[in-house]
Amino acid sequence: MSDRFEPVIIGFTCNWCSYRAADLAGTSRIKYPPNVRLIRLMCTGRLDPTFVLKAFSEGADGVLIAGCHPGECHYLEQNYKALRRYQLMTRTLAQFGIVPERLRLTWASAAEGARFAEEIATMVEEVRQVGPLNWPTRPVPRVEQASGGAA
Amino acid sequence: MSKPKFAMYWASACGGCEIAVLNIDEKILDLDANFEVAFWPAAMDVKYKEVEAMDDESILVTLFNGSIRTDENEHMAHLLRRKSKLLVAFGSCANEGCIPGLANLSPREGIFECAYTSPSTENPDHLRPRSAWQAPEGTLTLTPLQSVVRTLDQVVEVDYHVPGCPPESHQIAAVLDVLIAVVKGEAELPPKGAVLGAGDSTVCDECTRKRDIKRISKLSRIQELPMLNTEDCLLEQGLMCSGPATRSGCNSRCPNVGAPCIGCYGAAPGVLDQGARLMTAIASVVDEKEPAAIDKVLDGLPDPAGTFYRFSLAHSLLRANRAALAEKP
Q1: Domain boundaries in chain B?
Q2: What is the 3-state secondary structure (H, E, C) of A17-77?
Q3: Which residues of B touch A69 (CB under 8 A)?
Q4: How far away is chain B from the Cα of A149, in angstroms, using its nearest Cα?
Q5: B-interface mutation test, from A53, A65, A83, A88, most B Cβ less than 10 A away
């Protein structure tokens, strides 16, 4: 075993394309790093940014969002909604000091098992490069009595 | 029989909550008739040490406004928690961090830099506040700034929440009426943890403007939009409005007069993170599909975190910028 940092990545996939791509990667015996924990949504349009923030605040080092290719959403155009949320989240997260490498959006059709596995491998490598996030929980309250310590 | 005791305290806040309490007009006489004011620094002179000398839980109710920014704020939060039967987080600062909480987007050094070194500040000797200074007469102390702003319920247990920046006067009056009825034995206390003096829906729900198209192709600042009409949804007219994720209770005052909701009543019921819900809402209605075109619309929001979390940053899921959170408290 090495001491290499193994990032924890939460992956949100859609029921119709990207989850099936992951399934295909599995049934085709394609290897990809085990760092991703996949959560299946019906559609990436269901992805509330709250899910992403909750993942980061509770220990994820990265979040992957994977949906159907543009134009191929099973709910017409909800993946565009995911795209817009992703772009808005990236801007907002930058102000919190969360670098863009930690949030990735990708499209994968049900036939793209190999590509999906590659995307995951790339993301794991990128997040490994930027290091652990370890979102700092709230600071430990100081002793109650105010002391004259340095600010 | 002596009257039950009432206290109000002002931690890290602007003072607007105190003024809002005075805005209840003659209702303030009901407060005086039913309570003995034990401690209220903005209204009368009582020293901290006198509060320390009071029996524990001897104050029936304390309205605590302001966030926890300094060691002194934290000390007073613990002290008043101990002395009060009911501690009410009063106003946006105590509940969500409010405007002081926006400082959480920057580590402490950035705050000092901005306040004491920026070009708008005349400070040739680069003076900075210190927590202690030796004067000939003795040591002068100034309470230290903590690394991040926290809300009251992140520091001590809170019994009730009254949101708003500031809480609307008619809502404050209603809350006082409940308290007075309880004192007179005419009503039961609301369940612990309840949000008082607010609605249980969103500002959009109370807003009378028409929402039809739910699509926007441009986001502008209010001064760039001289021709706002008085009937249609402000968001549809291209103004960032926080109504979709904000708790009702204000009768949608701002949108009614043509100013967008800025989110001061905090997250709507069932919303874990007001900013995240606003991101959901805004991104949903942007009427573009190409990344570059989406970016162009989003450029109309130069400060997304500051806009979506204007009042709720300190109480959000992430709470603060990573560097600020990682600092020594």
Answers
A1: 5-100+147-183, 203-315
A2: CHHHHHHHHHHCCCCCCCCEEEEEECCHHHCCHHHHHHHHHCCCCEEEEEECCCCCECCEC
A3: none
A4: 6
A5: A88
Average pLDDT of the residues of chain A: 90
Looking at per-residue pLDDT, the higher value among B192 and B226 belongs to: B192
Judge whether residue A147 has pLDDT over 70: no
The position carrying tokens 């155009």 is A77
Query: In chain B, which residues have their Cβ closer than 8 Å to the Cβ of A87?
Result: 283, 291, 294-295, 298
Query: What share of chain B has pLDDT > 90, as a percent?
Result: 91
Local confidence band at A137 (pLDDT 50, 70, 90 cut-offs) = low
For B5-100+147-183, the fitting CATH number among 2.160.10.10, 3.40.50.700, 3.40.50.2300, 3.10.270.10 is 3.40.50.700
pLDDT digits (tens, 9 = 90+) for B121-158: 899 998 998 899 999 999 999 999 999 999 999 999 99
- Per-residue CA distances from B248 to B197, B259, B314 (Å): 10, 16, 20
Say if A136 falls within a structural domain.
Answer: no
Closest alpha carbon within chain B to A140: B329
Contacts of B141 in chain A (CB under 8 A): 148
Query: What's the whole-model pTM score?
Result: 0.92
To the nearest whole angstrom, how far is the Cα of B270 from the nearest Cα of chain A? 12
pLDDT in tens, B283-318: 999 999 999 999 999 999 999 999 999 999 999 999
Among A41, A46, A138, A145, the strongest candidate for a mutation testing the B interface, having the largest count of B CBs within 10 A, is A138
pLDDT of amino acid A1: 54
Question: How high is the ipTM of this complex?
Answer: 0.92
Q: Which of A50, A56, A88 sits opposite B277 (nearest CB)?
A: A50
Q: Which domain holds residue A97?
A: 9-130
B137: Cβ contacts below 8 Å, ≥ 6 apart: none
CA–CA separation, B103 and B70 (whole Å): 13
- Rounded CA gap, B79 and B1, in Å? 26
Cβ contact B280–A48 (<8 Å): yes
- CA distance, residue A30 to nearest chain B CA (Å): 31
DSSP B186: S
